Amino acid sequence: MAKRDYYDVLGVDKGASDAEIKKAFRRVAMKFHPDRNPDGADAEDKFKEAQEAYEILGDQEKKAAYDRFGHAGVDGNSGGGGAGGFSDVFGDVFGDIFGGGGGRGRGGPARGSDLRYDLQLDLEDAVRGKTVQIDVPTLSSCDTCDGSGARKGSSPVTCTTCNGAGQVRMSQGFFSVQQACPQCRGRGQMISDPCGDCHGQGVKEERKTLSVKIPAGVDTGDRIRLAGKGEAGPQGGPAGDLYVQMVVRDHPIFVRDDSNLHCEVPISFGQAALGGELEVPTLSGKVKLKIPAETQSGKLFRLRGKGVAPVRGGGVGDLLCRVVLETPVNLSAEQRDLLEQFEASLDGKSKHSPRSSSWFDGVKKFFDNLTR
After folding, report:
1. How many other CB atoms are there within 10 angstroms of residue 261's CB atom?
2. What is the mean pLDDT of the chain?
3. Which element (helix H / strand E) includes 111?
4. Number of Cβ within a 10 Å radius of residue 320
5. 203 with 286, same domain?
6. Rounded Cα–Cα distance for residues 131 and 214 (Å)
């Protein structure tokens, strides 16, 4: 009987990535594993077929030979020592099926899960640093049984499935894989008389209030690791970690760019034409900004050292102020008349509007070229 195409066996396209091939193999292997299909007559054959397909497609050299010559290019390679990463992915599959630890073996009680807490900060607090109190919902060690999971006065007993070894050996065809015991999950012991408060888990839900010191200069995406402040491990296992991730709120005036701050400063027509001084805000107070005469809208002014000192070190950044010319609104009749007189006094002279003159010259040249 002719062999099926290996890509069809795993249900992937020929251009699938290594990660997609690995994921597809895990899915097919879990679906057709004989222990999950005790009454399936063809499940074992399909399981072995998936093994063979992944052994070839999971190895770059064998995959290249298969893509070029088909089964003829790899007939001597299948069923041998396995493809690169094959034992890892196969171990993952067995871990999913039997509830084991993916080949970790017996390592004592499982570690608790890590937690993430998104901390919202104002820009000022992120730049200066502060200490905040946070409430974190988590699993903590049960006080009643001291985290053991066993009722007071009793103790865990040796697992009868693995006889305390924490591991069992699973054999399938030519494979023999040692995995964490599915009964005790690699601990080697079981709870025969569970604690009534935590139901044998050794942990209970609660909210913790923690004090977190935020260093000066943090930004969105930075995180602080609080070791051992995550979820407690079941049956007395070590606690995971808590990662406090910074999320800096948008600021009404400033936009942060690494160590620099940006802001827009509105100026009037008179200020732009005649020049003067403006008061502009910084995170450390107000400062004077000199506006030279004939300043154009969009001009950028740099205030050195008025930015942010990054949390990872380096010099203090700058504050970059972009002036934006503001057109007056709600004019009175007298003001409109004065503006009309002023506009008439310019009389279209290019010396008053150098940018407009050069722009109109460019437009004229553009249309002249079109009509040639």
Report:
1. 24
2. 81
3. none
4. 18
5. no
6. 6
Residue 168 and residue 254: Cα distance in Å, rounded? 61
pTM score of the predicted model: 0.55
CA–CA separation, 6 and 71 (whole Å): 9
Q: Is the pLDDT of residue 90 over 70?
A: no
Q: Is 80 in a helix, a strand, or coil? A: coil
Task: Confirm whether 50 is domain-assigned.
Answer: yes
Phi, psi of 106 (to 5 degrees): -80, 120
> Considering the domain boundaries, does residue 107 fall inside one?
no
In contact, 151 and 276? CB cutoff 8 Å: no
Place of tokens 């888990």: 201
Q: What is the DSSP string of 219-275?
A: -TT-EEEETT-SPPPGGGPPP--EEEEEEEPPPSS-EEETTEEEEEEEE-HHHHHH-
- The DSSP string of 171-213 is EETTEEEEEE-TTTTTSSEE-SSB-TTTTTSSEEEEEEEEEEE
Query: In terms of C-beta density within 10 A (0-12 exposed, 13-18 middle, 19 or more buried), how is residue 80 classed?
Result: exposed
Phi-psi region of 24 (alpha: psi -120 to 50; beta: other; left: phi over 0): alpha
Residue 177, C-beta contacts closer than 8 angstroms, at least 6 positions apart: 87, 90, 91, 94, 103, 169, 170, 171
Largest Cα span, the chain: 103
Residues of the domain holding 37: 6-98
Tell me whether residue 238 is in a domain: yes
Instruction: Report the amino acid identity of residue 200.
Output: G
Output the CA torsion sign for 139, 144, 148, 150. Answer: negative
Cα 160 to chain center, whole Å?
A: 42
Q: For residue range 230-271, what is the model confidence (pLDDT) as tens digits?
A: 888 776 678 889 999 999 999 999 999 999 999 999 999 899
| Cα separation, 72 vs 83, whole angstroms | 18
Residue 105 maps to a domain: no
Cβ pair 49, 9 in contact under 8 A = yes
Residue 329 has pLDDT above 80, yes or no: yes
Q: Are residues 90 and 30 in the same domain?
A: yes
